[in-house]
Write a structure and sequence with these properties.
Helix content: 40-55%
Radius of gyration: 16 Å
Distance between the termini: 23 Å
Number of strands: 6
Oligomer: single chain
Order of helices and strands: HEHEHEHHEHEE
Structural class: alpha/beta
Strand order of the largest sheet: 3-2-1-4-6-5
């Protein structure tokens, strides 16, 4: 039997969606699904509320080629999950290490660039208008702490924004891991 999100978790997500105007209804939403617990929870939650918001979901998974067999296992898991939920999936493999080698950027920075470029491709291919990511309240706290440790001033201490230009949404932003 499949676990369905309920209770306080769903209320918290619905409150965040409405508070930050993440969904207005009728959108097609690309859900970034890495295979980790946050993105898997996000996909389950959005699947549970899709009728309430009249949204269509399309999952996107990018295999970065950084963790060998474990990354391929994640991709297979995401494929099975999406098939089980009836959510279409676009999956792609990219050798981020190779791209980083020919760049002056860090591996993390290149991975982030490649990931968001992939999401943009999926948006264009599917006609979607939103990208949902699994960032949550714990990520928010970690981001602020890292910025503080790096010596950021008051102006730079902004955390992760719940919604960016109405395009990138983070429905779990007020949920603790």
């Amino acid at each position: 039997r499949e676990a369905r999100p309920k209770g306080k978790l769903l209320r918290t997500v619905r409150t965040a969606i409405e508070k930050y105007g993440m969904l207005v209804g009728g959108e097609r939403v690309v859900v970034a699904v890495s295979g980790g617990p946050d993105s898997v929870a996000l996909l389950h939650i959005l699947s549970s509320v899709k009728a309430d918001y009249a949204i269509e979901l399309h999952a996107a998974h990018l295999e970065h080629g950084l963790r060998g067999e474990a990354s391929l296992d994640d991709m297979k898991f995401v494929e099975t999950l999406c098939r089980g939920l009836g959510v279409p999936l676009t999956a792609k493999r990219v050798d981020v290490r190779e791209r980083a080698a020919s760049s002056r950027l860090s591996l993390e920075a290149v991975a982030r660039q490649v990931r968001y470029a992939f999401f943009e491709e999926v948006l264009a291919e599917t006609g979607a208008t939103k990208i949902a990511t699994g960032h949550n309240a714990n990520d928010q706290a970690e981001t602020l702490l890292l910025k503080l440790l790096r010596g950021s001033g008051i102006a730079g201490l902004r955390g992760i924004r719940p919604a960016i230009e109405g395009k990138i949404i983070r429905p779990l932003i007020e949920v603790k891991r």
